[in-house]
């Protein structure tokens, strides 16, 4: 992506607790992200992420996927809210929905996701459990641009986390979460600085 966007407008999609959302809000407030979270959308009304948004006076939208005929129609509704807020970058932060070309086409190379494993290992649900069951010694997290597949898009940043003998799904998840809260803001800041460009599967990070 060429150019420097200056202070970018970020739309965050969540389904749950939203600790990554919180890290992004905090990063914007602290100035480590040249951006502002301008809206938060959840498919779940009870998502604590919506509460976090309200706590910071950020517009919080509940968009119930069950009210729409199919994924494309749902994504069209998402796009219209995101466009109303003039969003530059769409950030999936624990959004438990598969997105379609309707969303991706409206925001080409402008939709990011974070996954709690070192992709391409352990895509999909329960990545931490998959890592433990496989017996890997390291896992971690990956921020990537979203493409139509599940956790298959071009990788922006990754961070490695050790897997300990005594780990449970919960302790491993906690250790990965700590890294996620650093990695996602870092990737978003690279986008805000206009330093990311996608070349096939590879994302290049230009020097400052
Ligand atoms: C994170 O582990 C992220 O990698 C995955 O969903 C989880 C969201 O956690 N995509 P939180 O809601 O940000 O705490």
**Gap between N and C termini:** 14 Å
The string of secondary-structure elements, in order, is EHEHEHEHEHEEHEE
Q: What fold name stands as the CATH topology?
A: Rossmann fold
Kindly provide the name of the CATH class: Alpha Beta
Which ligands, by name, code or SMILES, are bound?
A: 5-O-phosphono-beta-D-ribofuranosylamine
Can you list the strand order of the major beta sheet? Answer: 3-2-1-4-5-6-7
Beta fraction of the residues?
Answer: 15-25%
Supply the helix-strand structural class.
Answer: alpha/beta
Shape: globular
Determine the oligomeric state from the structure.
Answer: single chain
Which superfamily, in CATH terms, is the homologous superfamily?
A: Formyl transferase, N-terminal domain
Give the number of helices: 6
Q: What is the correct CATH architecture? A: 3-Layer(aba) Sandwich
Alpha carbon gyration radius:
16 Å
Total domains: 1
Fraction in helix = 25-40%
